[in-house]
């Protein structure tokens, strides 16, 4: 429960400020061009530093890293909540991302080494997968409630008491062996790997306002690819590699990493468009918008804890992952029928339930399979790679699909706007057209995730899926 609480805090913080952003912008006087940094400062630091955080966890010990991450995350949250200038808030969000990169792989590697019994491991990863999949929706709900009934600052302050509870619980309940003190931290690998990821995530985040053909965007993406190629080259030669290549050479893990990244591209894009659709097109309040996502959250939890966790003891992971991607794609297909007057109960609710159940079937077996059979010294970096694929996939999805939506929406408005008489209606129709076009892309990407899972993830059940975990190094 302590590990799950910490993971929930990290995941939901990627979205909890989304609904609060307009209030924070007015309060601190941010420009429209700079307000995105409240979101991207967190995702850039988080996605770019995850591999380094995972290796630090392996070197100095997971429990110690877990507690340091919690304390740092709480301090950064308090700093952000008390921000008096936009720059102070951006810096606090970047610090949150940096400590989240330390915290997240420590949490997953502690979970990996704590549960080796197939039944208990299935339950643990079911809960973890539910939190990973539903954290964004929970963040939207919490952000709406806190913003409407308190103020936007509490979207950050709320992390402080949660972190205190988690630190006390970790000190009392978690056990861990000392880190590998004889090993060295791969500094060149950290610079190359983190630099490459930051450049790519930054490039995708800048693609929406600047355009995909902007020279600075192309330069960032090219630099990111070049740095990652240099990272792979160095990892083959480094005496203590940041990411041992045998971790990603394993067919099942590679399949899980790719499936996670692709599935999250579609999921994060859907969150973005439905949030704006509910508030901008249908006129929902922040709280009502958050509540509208509640069925999706419930469906993810049910899919992870009540279906995947029970069935993974008896079936191969891809038997859950492939149908999960088909269900999620079917749910997204429902959202392609959105119009300016769509009914929530008749259209959006079925789409959310299908998508949520599908994502619940995807996340849990990915976490369990990707981290099974990893040696203790590599559990932290493997956990970090799972989280990296999720975070980078989310960043790419937000940038890519938002660009598709903006471009297609503008094209629709230009083609259908014949005069000022119906301008407001045409603009709203154009916005919805952009959303539905992007969701079509999300459907295709989700189906590609299913194809990858079906072809690459060949692990068997239950022994290979759940029973080959490393020797436990901690107890819950």
Automatic annotation (TrEMBL):
Its main location: membrane. InterPro entries: EmrB-like, MFS, MFS_dom, MFS_trans_sf, Sugar_transporter_CS. The chain crosses the membrane at residues 34-53, 65-83, 95-115, 127-150, 156-174, 186-204, 216-234, 255-278, 290-312, 319-340, 352-375, 396-418, 438-457. Residues 1-462 form the Major facilitator superfamily (MFS) profile domain. It is found in: Cell membrane. GO terms for biological process: response to antibiotic. One of its GO terms (molecular function) is transmembrane transporter activity. Keywords: Antibiotic resistance, Cell membrane, Membrane, Transmembrane, Transmembrane helix, Transport. One of its GO terms (cellular component) is plasma membrane. It is a multi-pass membrane protein. The keyword Membrane applies. CDD domains: MFS_MMR_MDR_like. SUPFAM superfamilies: MFS general substrate transporter (SSF103473). Pfam families: MFS_1. The keyword Ribosomal protein does not apply. This is DHA2 family efflux MFS transporter permease subunit. It comes from Streptomyces fagopyri. The lineage of its organism: Bacteria, Bacillati, Actinomycetota, Actinomycetes, Kitasatosporales.
């Amino acid at each position: 429960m302590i590990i799950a609480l910490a993971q929930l805090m990290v995941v939901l913080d990627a979205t909890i400020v989304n609904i609060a952003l307009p209030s924070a912008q007015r309060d601190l006087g941010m420009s429209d061009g700079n307000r995105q940094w409240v979101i991207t400062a967190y995702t850039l630091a988080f996605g770019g530093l995850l591999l380094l955080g995972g290796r630090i966890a392996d070197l100095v010990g997971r429990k110690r890293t877990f507690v340091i991450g919690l304390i740092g995350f709480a301090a950064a949250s308090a700093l952000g909540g008390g921000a008096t200038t936009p720059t102070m808030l951006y810096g606090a969000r970047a610090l949150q991302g940096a400590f989240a990169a330390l915290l997240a792989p420590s949490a997953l590697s502690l979970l990996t080494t704590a549960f080796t019994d197939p039944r208990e491991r299935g339950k643990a990863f079911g809960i973890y997968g539910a939190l990973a999949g539903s954290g964004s929706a929970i963040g939207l709900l919490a952000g709406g409630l806190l913003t409407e009934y308190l103020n936007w600052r509490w979207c950050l302050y709320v992390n402080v008491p949660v972190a205190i509870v988690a630190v006390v619980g970790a000190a009392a309940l978690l056990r861990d062996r000392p880190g590998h003190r004889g090993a060295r931290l791969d500094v060149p690998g950290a610079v190359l790997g983190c630099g490459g990821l930051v450049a790519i995530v930054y490039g995708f985040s800048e693609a929406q306002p600047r355009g995909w053909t902007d020279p600075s965007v192309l330069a960032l993406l090219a630099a990111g690819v070049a740095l990652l190629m240099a990272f792979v080259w160095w990892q083959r030669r480094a005496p203590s590699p940041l990411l041992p290549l045998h971790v990603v050479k394993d067919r099942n893990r590679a399949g899980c990493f790719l499936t996670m990244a692709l599935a999250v591209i579609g999921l994060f894009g859907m969150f973005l468009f439905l949030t704006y659709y509910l508030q901008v097109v249908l006129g929902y309040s922040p709280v009502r918008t958050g509540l509208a996502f509640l069925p999706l959250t419930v469906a993810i939890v049910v899919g992870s804890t009540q279906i995947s966790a029970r069935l993974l003891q008896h079936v191969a992971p891809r038997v859950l992952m492939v149908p999960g991607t088909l269900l999620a794609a079917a749910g997204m297909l429902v959202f392609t029928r959105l119009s300016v007057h769509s009914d929530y109960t008749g259209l959006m609710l079925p789409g959310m339930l299908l998508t949520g159940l599908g994502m619940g079937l995807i996340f849990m077996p990915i976490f369990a399979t990707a981290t099974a059979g990893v040696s203790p010294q590599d559990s932290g970096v493997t956990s970090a790679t799972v989280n990296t694929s999720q975070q980078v996939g989310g960043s790419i999805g937000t940038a890519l699909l938002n660009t598709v939506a903006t471009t297609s929406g503008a094209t629709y408005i230009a083609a259908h706007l014949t005069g000022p008489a119906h301008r407001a209606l045409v603009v709203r129709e154009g916005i919805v057209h952009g959303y539905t076009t992007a969701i079509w892309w999300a459907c295709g990407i989700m189906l590609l995730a299913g194809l990858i899972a079906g072809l690459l993830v060949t692990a068997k059940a239950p022994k290979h899926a759940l029973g080959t975990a490393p020797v436990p190094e901690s107890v819950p």
